[in-house]
Design a protein that fits this description.
Elements: H1 2-15, E1 26-28, E2 31-33, E3 41-42, E4 59-61, H2 66-73, H3 85-88, E5 91-101, E6 106-117, E7 120-130, E8 136-137, E9 141-143, E10 146-148, E11 150-151, E12 167-174, E13 177-185, E14 191-197, E15 202-206, E16 223-224, E17 233-237, E18 242-245, E19 254-257, E20 267-268, E21 274-275, E22 281-294, E23 297-312, E24 317-323, E25 356-365, E26 370-377, E27 381-388, H4 390-402, H5 412-420, H6 430-438
Antiparallel strand pairs: 1-2, 3-27, 4-27, 5-6, 6-7, 7-8, 7-11, 9-10, 12-13, 13-14, 14-15, 16-17, 17-18, 18-19, 20-22, 21-22, 22-23, 23-24, 25-26, 26-27
Bound molecules: 2-acetamido-2-deoxy-beta-D-glucopyranose (NAG) (3 copies).
One 2-acetamido-2-deoxy-beta-D-glucopyranose binds near residues 339, 352, 380 and 381.
C-alpha cells in the first residue's frame, strides 16, 4: 500500500518541472514551516494587478456585470423593500467558489450575494460560467436541472428573519455530479449545512446525531474531501481532525475519524480538497481565524492556510500531514486598483484588511505549477488569481511526511499565526474564553 503512494509520487516527480523542490522545513515551536512568503506568489504580468479583460489575466475581479445580475435577482425578491436595492449599494458579493469543467472548457462558479437592507442581511447564491481566462460567459444553458447563469433554486423558509438564505457556498464534483455545500438557517431556526445537487436541482440538510440532543447549534465550514466515487466525506472540524461520511442522505452523517468535539480551534475549513496529481494526497486552503489584538486594535482576522491530507482508502483513515502558517501574498491584493491603498503600510488590518480567504482551488496545472484560485476579500471583492509555487511546496510537504517527520503538534496554526502577526499568545485572555463558551454547540465559523 505504501509503495503504491510512493510510485504515484515518483511518477509525479518525474512528470513535473521541479525547479528545486528540495526545501527542508524549519521548525517553530514544534511546527514545520517552509517560508511560504518566498515560495508562493501571485503570477505577476507586466500589468499587475491586472483587472482588465486581457487575454491572459493573472487576476480578475469576478462578476462585474451587476446590471445583469440584478436582472437575475429581482424575480427572487418578492418583497417591495428590495426595489431600490441597486441604487442603495448595499449589495455585496462574497465567497466565490469555482470548479473547472474540462468537458466544457469552462469554470463553473457559485458566489454568495448578500443584501443588506435597513440593517438586516439576506443571502442568495448566484451561479455562472467563466472561460479559461476568467471572462464571464452569459449565454444561458441548463446544467442538469439548474439554469446557468442564474440564482440557485434553494428554498428559504422565511426571508424575513435576520441572516436568512444560503451562505458560504463551496462547489465540488463527486462521482460525475456537481454539488454545492453551504450553510443556511433552517425552518427550526438552526444554522445547518446543506447540499445542493445541480443534476436534480434539489437540496437537503446534513445532520449529525448530536443535533437531536442539542437545544441550539450552528454549523459552518464543513469542507468537501472527495477521495473516491463512493463517499461524500467532509472535514467537520480540524480539531482532532474529524471527518464525516454523509453519503447516505436518509440518515445522520457517520463519524469516520477523530474524537468528536464541536468547538473549532484556530484552523477552519476553506476550499474543497483537490487530489494532488496521481497521489493519495489532497490539498486545500483552510483559513486561520485568530483574535488579533495589538495596541488598541481588536478584531478577528482571517487568512488562508495550506493543508495537506493523506487518505488511506482501504481503511478510510485520514491524516492531516501539514498545515501552513497564514498566507497573505505579501498583502498585494489590498493594493490599488483592488483596494484604495498605494502601499501595504496603509492597509488597516482591523478594517478592509481583515478578511482574505481562498474559497476554491478551481484548476491546477501540476506541470506548469499554476493554480487558478478564487479569493474572498473583505467580504465584498470576489477575485480569481493565478498562483505559482504550490506544486513545489506540496511536494516538499509530502517529502517531509514520507521522510518520517511527525510533529504531533495539533494547533500549529495559532502558533504560526501569532508569529506571523507578531503578537503575543493571548490564549488565556478573557475574550477568548468568552468566545469559547459562546461556541459550545456546533462548528461555528
Ligand atoms: C427600517 O428600520 C426602521 C427601524 O428599525 C423602521 O422604523 C423602518 O420602518 C424600516 N424601514 C423599512 C423600509 O423596512
Ligand atoms: C470593505 O468592507 C466594508 C464593510 O462591508 C465596506 O464598508 C468597504 O467599502 C469595503 N471596502 C472595499 C474596498 O470594498
Ligand atoms: C496613491 O497614489 C496616488 C498617485 O501617486 C495619489 O494620487 C493618491 O493620493 C495616493 N493615495 C493614498 C491613499 O495615499
Amino acid at each position: 500500500m505504501g509503495w503504491k503512494f510512493s510510485i504515484g509520487l515518483f511518477a509525479l516527480l518525474l512528470c513535473i518541472k521541479c525547479t528545486s523542490g528540495d526545501h527542508k522545513p524549519t521548525m517553530f515551536k514544534g511546527c514545520p514551516t517552509f517560508n511560504i512568503k518566498t515560495r508562493l506568489s501571485i503570477i505577476e504580468k507586466s500589468c499587475f494587478p491586472c483587472l482588465s479583460f486581457s487575454t491572459t489575466p493573472s487576476m480578475s475581479k469576478l462578476f462585474r456585470d451587476t446590471e445583469f445580475i440584478f436582472s437575475m435577482i429581482s424575480p427572487h425578491l418578492l418583497d417591495d423593500q428590495f426595489c431600490d436595492l441597486q441604487s442603495s449599494g448595499e449589495f455585496m458579493m462574497m465567497f466565490p467558489s469555482a470548479v473547472w469543467l474540462p468537458e466544457k472548457n469552462m469554470f463553473l462558479t457559485v458566489v454568495r450575494m448578500s443584501i443588506r437592507k435597513n440593517g438586516s442581511m439576506k443571502s442568495l447564491l448566484f451561479t455562472s460560467l467563466f472561460d479559461s481566462h476568467w471572462n464571464e460567459v452569459i449565454t444561458e444553458e441548463m446544467i442538469g436541472a439548474t439554469q446557468v447563469p442564474g440564482i440557485i433554486p434553494i428554498e428559504v423558509y422565511d426571508y424575513n428573519i435576520e441572516n436568512a438564505g444560503p451562505e458560504d457556498p463551496r462547489i465540488f464534483t463527486f462521482a460525475g455530479g456537481i454539488y454545492v455545500i453551504f450553510n443556511m438557517i433552517d425552518i427550526d431556526v438552526r444554522r445547518k449545512m446543506f447540499l445542493f445537487n445541480f443534476e436534480t436541482g434539489k437540496s437537503w440538510p446534513l445532520r449529525i446525531i448530536e443535533h437531536s440532543l442539542w437545544s441550539h447549534y450552528t454549523e459552518k465550514n464543513w469542507t468537501p474531501l472527495i477521495v473516491d466515487d463512493e463517499h461524500l466525506y467532509f472535514v467537520y472540524n480540524y480539531k482532532n481532525f474529524q471527518i464525516l461520511d454523509c453519503t447516505d442522505k436518509s440518515t445522520y452523517c457517520k463519524k469516520v475519524s477523530g474524537l468528536f468535539d464541536s468547538v473549532p480551534a484556530g484552523l477552519r475549513g476553506g476550499s474543497p480538497y483537490v487530489k494532488f496529481g496521481s497521489t493519495q494526497y489532497f490539498v486545500s486552503f483552510g483559513y486561520s481565524h485568530i483574535d488579533y489584538r495589538k495596541g488598541n486594535q481588536f478584531c478577528a482576522v482571517y487568512r488562508p492556510a495550506l493543508t495537506v491530507v493523506k487518505a488511506n482508502e482501504e481503511s478510510s483513515s485520514f491524516e492531516l500531514i501539514y498545515q501552513s502558517e497564514p498566507i497573505d501574498f505579501e498583502e498585494k491584493l489590498f493594493l490599488e486598483p483592488i483596494m484604495p491603498y498605494n502601499s501595504t503600510d496603509q492597509v488597516k488590518i482591523c478594517e478592509d484588511g481583515r478578511i482574505m480567504m481562498v474559497a476554491s482551488i478551481a484548476r491546477w496545472d501540476f506541470d506548469e505549477d499554476v493554480v487558478d484560485a478564487t479569493i474572498n476579500l473583505n467580504d465584498t471583492i470576489p477575485l480569481a488569481i493565478k498562483i505559482t509555487g504550490l506544486t513545489d511546496l506540496v511536494l516538499d510537504a509530502i517529502k517531509m511526511h514520507e521522510g518520517g517527520l511527525v510533529t504531533g503538534e495539533e494547533n500549529c496554526i495559532e502558533k504560526l499565526a501569532f508569529k506571523h502577526f507578531e503578537i503575543d499568545d493571548p490564549s488565556s485572555s478573557r475574550l477568548n474564553l468568552r468566545k469559547k463558551r459562546m461556541m459550545k454547540y456546533g462548528n461555528n465559523g
